[in-house]
Every structure is written in structure tokens, then in C-alpha cells.
Design goal:
heterodimer, A: alpha+beta, Nuclear Transport Factor 2, Chain: A, 6-stranded mixed beta sheet, two-stranded antiparallel sheet, 3 helices, B: alpha+beta, 7-stranded antiparallel beta sheet, 10 helices, 19 strands, 24% helix, disordered N terminus, binds fe (ii) ion
Chain lengths: 164, 417
């Protein structure tokens, strides 16, 4: 018999993770980018990397942030400087699973699907892929110590403006 | 094929004002597009196909493109590099499905015809049929049924291919100014592949080609550049067309004090927020001055690549046409085999500046993808190119469209327009 799937590792439950992922998705759907960095720990790594690079062991990621300061910089650059056409994004997250645990952090995975709606266009898939996460509890709330977004798209459609 | 045939391929007429006007039909006419591929990508040009670090070992391969045609870069057992069409000589099916990898030979998935890494047909199943029936005719000549092989040139770590027997040797095609800039990046130390970013942009490839010859827009549309003092209209800047418009380079000397200077020019740019600061300074500065020349620059090699260096982020932008109304931008990020952890980290961090999510590049594809339907809707409209006058000479300013005029000067001659 294989080991039973555990709904809870340490004190972090699968239900809590789902709440975290839903809140994170809602933040991005609302383009509330100023609130985005608060989902991460100070030393967090956040990256959006193609499956092509990830599977081939290549380090380059289309978005690559080492530390929350870089995540904050990306938000500042996007909000204050970047020029992009108005869009609505909807993030759909499914299949949230805990895949491991070490030193008080859990490893988790989930699928994501992002639908983009632009002016004069039918909604279409912007990106699909999976999250590979390390999550910790910090001051009572869950934070990402690492969120690696591995996208299945061979190519990014036009641009990637809003984080994944 | 004679030049006359090419000229008759379309009856389009360029506006009378010459290179200060560009007709919008060049971005949407399928005949023009087909002719461009024939004259340029499949004609007398050298096409960038990849870097040697993408096929690092003997018996390795990597897929690439020349124009719209899929090709395979191979490194054979002896270490020699070949470029062959990714198209089975038998029925034209796609041979190599995997993007990159190791192989001793190439076998077509359809009927298992097998080729060696230089493209020669080695064998095919049931050559003599089964039980005396079927099979290929006795006079079938394997040596005449190999893959289409392209002429290959390697310069430092860069790999180039052409369909033409007539085009000048690569070094001559590039010329001394491009060679110096290319060698600086890819010929001094062995390369190390960091990875790819790819984006599909729904605009004609020339809109992107012009965009990177357009310093006028740089500080206006990319506020990030001026805000953090990476590039400013009042800095030292040179726009230099080469070989009568075929290639070009731009050049500026990085001035770390630029951000603190205000000037008339910087006040004219509405998009400057000089109160903005980045928290992680490693992303926007040359922490390691690896080339010891302070050079910030870009160059284009017609018709396939542009290279623009920001600090320690090294990347080749490969422009791959995908039909008249779309192009792929394939960004290959690289470093050097002997990079330490610090410089590797800087390259990865600074790659946030360019690419599909780049702080100083994402605006381009946003604008161009919205521009394409507009130019398609008004094919007889003309665009105005008079910044910096009417000429095609080198100019020491960003406020010029001389590089775009020079490009269309070249383009019209080659296309017979
Ligand atoms: Fe631009």
C-alpha cells in the first residue's frame, strides 16, 4: 500500500493553501499589484519560466525576482512606467496538492490557467502551466518563499505584463 | 532567377517622396511578404540560426528557422556544425520534433528514413521490398536524396546559414563594424546558454525591424529607460547605418551620473518620474564591468537578429517571420562558460529588462500588435519619416529616423520597389 495522501503537513493544511492561492489569484485579477509583494517572504524567489527552459535545466526565466525587493521593483515598474493596453485577466487555479515538507515549509503544486480579454478581441488563453511552490507560515499568515510558475506555452502571446 | 522576374512579381509603386515615406501595404501585402522571403531570407543573405552553446557536444542538435522554414543545427561526431532543413527528403514531413538534444542520426518518424548529422541519407526501410515485392527501384540513388543542406559559417560562438552560393563570405557580409561588435560578445570566451524567452507578436516583421532602428521612440515609449538613467536623449548617442542601409549600429557611452542630471531634454519627456527608485540596484547597473569599455549599444544584422546590450544581460533577438501579419521573437540569453555565481546572478536578474516581460521592451510588442490591424485597414496610407531630415547618413543624435530611412533605401533596391 502506498502512503496515504495527507491533507495536512505540519500546521499548513491543503484548505489553507487553497485559500492562499485564491487570494493571490484575486489580487492579480483585480490588478491590485501594490498588494502583490505581501504574498512573499523577504527572501522569496519568484519566477515565471518556460517549460522548455525548466525541463532543460536552463536558468533563464522571463520574470526572475530574487528577494521581495525585486518583486516590489517589478510592481513599481509596471504600475509607474510600463505602457500596455487595458486588459482583464482571470486566473483559474486547480489541483492544489501538498507534495512535501521540510523545515517547517511545505512544497505544493497547482495548475493555473489565465484567460486574457483585450478590447475588440475575444477572450483567449494567455498562459497555462503549473505553480511549484514553497510555502511557510510567517506571523500567522502563509507566504511564498518560492513560487516558480512553469508555463506550458511554447511562446508568450505578445507580452507578459501582469505577474502569473 | 533574374531580377526582372522579381520586379514583375508585384505592380506596387513606392510613393514619390522616396524614403521619407513608407507605404502601409508593405506590412500587409502577401505578395510583398512572399517576395521578401525569397529575396532576403532564402536569397543572398546570411541568416543567424543559433549559438554554438546550444549544440555544446558532438552528436547534438537544436531546431531553428531560416525565414519560415524549419531547420536543424547539428554538431556531428567530429564536432563539425551543419545546418539542414528539418524536412524529410522523402515526403516532406517534419523530421526532428524535439527542440534540442542528443542524437547520432536523424530518423524520420513517418517512414523511418535515416540521415546522418550532416544530412546524407543513410538508409530506408524495405529498400528492396518484402519477399521480392515492392521496394525502391534499383537505380534509386541515396546520395541524391539527402536533406537540403545550407551553407554554414561560424564566427566565434555564432552560427549562420544561407541558401545562397553567391552571397559573400560571412565576414564580408557582416563588415568590420558589425564583426567588432559581434566578436566582443561571442568570440572572446566560450559561451554558456542561459535559456530562451519566446514571444509571438501579431505584427509584420518589419514593424519590429524598424522599431529597433528607432531611437526617437526609445525614451518616450519606454519610460523605464530615462527614469533610471539607462538612456537619455541628452546623452552621447550615435545612429550609424552600414552597407547602404543593410545593417546598422547605435552606440552610447554609459554615464552613471546621467540620472542625477536634469536638462531641457529630460524636461520635455512627460513620462519621466525622476522620484522613482529601484530597490535592487543590481538590476539596473553594471556591477561587473566585464567588457571594460562602458559601451552601451545595439546592432542589427539583416535580416535576422538584433543585439542590444544592457549591462551584463547578453541576449540575441532572433526575428522569425510567421506569415505576413506575425513574427516570433526568439530571445536567446547567454553568458560565458567561466562565469562565476555573481555574474551569472546578475545576468539572470538583468534579463528582467528585456524580453516578453522586459521593463524596456514589453511596450514594443504591445504597440506593434495594435498597429498591425490599423496598417492593414489603410494599405494605401503612407508613414512619415522626416526626423533628422531626409537623408540616410549617420547622425549623432537619438532624434532621428535616419536608420529607418537607410533601411528602406536598402529595401527598395533589393526588392525592386
Ligand atoms: Fe522600443
Amino acid at each position: 500500500m502506498t502512503a496515504p495522501v495527507r491533507d495536512e503537513v505540519g500546521r499548513i493544511t491543503r484548505g489553507e493553501l487553497r485559500d492562499l492561492f485564491d487570494d493571490y489569484a484575486a489580487c492579480l485579477d483585480a490588478e491590485a499589484l501594490r498588494e502583490f509583494p505581501a504574498f512573499f517572504t523577504e527572501d522569496a524567489k519568484y519566477q515565471v519560466i518556460s517549460r522548455e527552459n525548466h525541463d532543460d535545466g536552463l536558468e533563464h526565466a522571463s520574470i526572475f525576482c530574487l528577494g521581495r525587493a525585486m518583486i516590489e521593483d517589478r510592481v513599481t515598474a509596471t504600475v509607474e512606467a510600463a505602457l500596455y493596453q487595458p486588459r482583464s485577466l482571470r486566473h483559474f487555479v486547480s489541483g492544489v496538492r501538498i507534495t512535501g515538507e521540510e523545515n517547517g515549509e511545505v512544497r505544493a503544486e497547482a495548475n493555473f490557467l489565465i484567460i486574457e480579454s483585450l478590447v475588440e478581441r475575444e477572450p483567449r488563453i494567455l498562459m497555462v502551466g503549473r505553480y511549484l511552490d514553497r510555502v511557510v507560515r510567517e506571523d500567522g499568515s502563509l507566504k511564498f518563499r518560492e513560487r516558480t510558475c512553469v508555463f506550458d506555452n511554447y511562446r508568450i502571446r505578445t507580452t507578459l505584463v501582469i505577474p502569473v | 532567377m533574374s531580377d526582372t522576374t522579381l520586379r514583375n512579381a508585384t505592380d506596387r509603386v513606392w510613393p514619390e517622396d522616396g524614403v521619407t515615406r513608407v507605404p502601409a501595404w508593405i506590412y500587409s501585402d502577401p505578395e510583398i511578404y512572399a517576395k521578401e522571403l525569397k529575396v532576403f531570407h532564402y536569397g543572398k543573405t546570411w541568416n543567424f540560426v543559433g549559438l554554438d552553446c546550444e549544440v555544446p557536444e558532438p552528436n547534438s542538435f537544436k531546431r531553428s528557422w531560416v525565414g519560415e522554414r524549419p531547420v536543424i543545427i547539428t554538431r556531428d561526431a567530429e564536432g563539425e556544425i551543419h545546418v539542414v532543413e528539418n524536412r524529410c527528403a522523402h515526403r516532406g514531413s517534419l523530421l526532428c520534433w524535439k527542440n534540442r538534444g542528443q542524437a547520432k542520426d536523424i530518423t524520420c518518424p513517418y517512414h523511418h528514413w535515416t540521415y546522418n548529422l550532416s544530412g546524407d541519407l543513410m538508409g530506408l526501410p524495405f529498400l528492396r521490398g518484402v519477399q521480392g515485392k515492392g521496394g525502391m527501384p534499383r537505380d534509386f540513388d541515396k546520395s541524391k536524396n539527402g536533406l537540403t543542406k545550407l551553407r554554414v559559417a561560424v564566427r566565434g560562438g555564432s552560427i549562420w546559414a544561407t541558401y545562397s552560393d553567391e552571397v559573400a563570405p560571412l565576414e564580408e557580409y557582416l563588415g568590420p563594424e558589425i564583426l567588432m561588435r559581434l566578436d566582443r560578445l561571442v568570440s572572446r570566451r566560450p559561451l554558456r546558454l542561459l535559456g530562451y524567452s519566446r514571444q509571438i507578436v501579431e505584427s509584420n516583421w518589419k514593424l519590429y525591424w524598424e522599431n529597433s532602428r528607432d531611437p526617437y521612440h526609445a525614451t518616450l515609449m519606454h519610460p523605464f529607460l530615462s527614469t533610471f538613467g539607462i538612456l537619455r536623449t541628452d546623452g552621447d548617442y550615435h545612429s550609424v547605418p552600414l552597407q547602404e542601409g543593410r545593417h546598422e549600429y547605435t552606440y552610447s557611452q554609459y554615464d552613471p551620473e546621467l540620472k542625477n542630471k536634469t536638462s531641457e531634454a529630460s524636461k520635455q519627456i512627460k513620462s519621466i518620474h525622476s522620484d522613482l527608485e529601484v530597490k535592487d540596484k543590481e538590476v539596473v547597473s553594471s556591477v561587473v564591468d566585464e567588457f571594460k569599455d562602458g559601451m552601451m549599444g545595439a546592432f542589427q544584422v539583416f535580416p535576422t537578429i538584433l543585439v542590444q546590450q544592457y549591462f551584463n544581460c547578453l541576449v540575441v533577438r532572433h526575428v522569425i517571420p510567421k506569415g505576413v501579419g506575425a513574427h516570433e521573437l526568439s530571445w536567446t540569453y547567454f553568458g560565458y562558460a567561466d562565469d562565476d555565481e555573481t555574474i551569472n546572478r546578475l545576468r539572470l536578474k538583468q534579463s528582467n529588462l528585456v524580453g516578453p516581460a522586459g521593463f524596456v521592451s514589453l511596450e514594443d510588442s504591445e504597440v506593434l500588435s495594435l498597429m498591425q490591424p490599423v496598417v492593414e485597414s489603410c494599405p494605401d496610407s503612407v508613414q512619415v519619416l522626416e526626423m533628422g531630415g531626409h537623408g540616410t547618413e549617420a547622425q549623432s543624435t537619438m532624434m532621428t529616423e535616419t536608420l529607418i530611412r537607410a533601411f528602406y533605401d536598402f529595401y527598395r533596391r533589393e526588392m525592386g520597389l
